[in-house]
Amino acid sequence: MKQYQIYVFTKSECGPCDRLKAHISSIPEDRQTAFRVIDRSTSSPLFDQFDVNLHPTMVVSHVDLTCELFEGDEYCTQSESIVEKVEGANNIIASLDATISAYTYADAE
Fold it and tell me: Can you tell me the distance from the alpha carbon of 60 to that of 80, in angstroms, rounded to the nearest whole number?
């Protein structure tokens, strides 16, 4: 299981989002699999979960798995907490490569 998830939140008709998407398309495909681009039109609950109001926004979350033993059975729940949040196309573009490298390296351990 991946310990970290990188999300990039965008919306249509957003100039900075379009600039970020153009940058993302220039990243080698094998590195693009390290993150998920989520458009506002998908009505993803992640926008509310991570309190995303500005576009574009990049969120890195740590995935926690909590397990409990109840009457001999193990029940596990998964939750995500924000590790890093970056807003604005210029800021995301400046940090995206380093973020991908840092968190995919952390997942490999």
Answer: 9
| Selection from 85, 74, 77, 76 nearest residue 5 by Cα | 85
What is this structure's pTM? 0.83
Query: Whole-angstrom distance between the N-terminal and C-terminal Cα of the chain?
Result: 11
The rounded distance, in Å, linking the Cα atoms of 5 and 16 is 22
Q: How far is CA 22 from CA 36, 50, 56, 89, in A?
A: 15, 24, 13, 11
Cis peptide, bond prior to residue 56, ω within 30 of zero: yes
Q: What does the pLDDT look like over 29-88, one tens digit per residue? A: 888 888 999 999 998 899 999 999 999 999 999 888 778 887 778 788 778 888 999 999
What DSSP string runs through 52-69? --SSSEEEEEEEEEEEEE
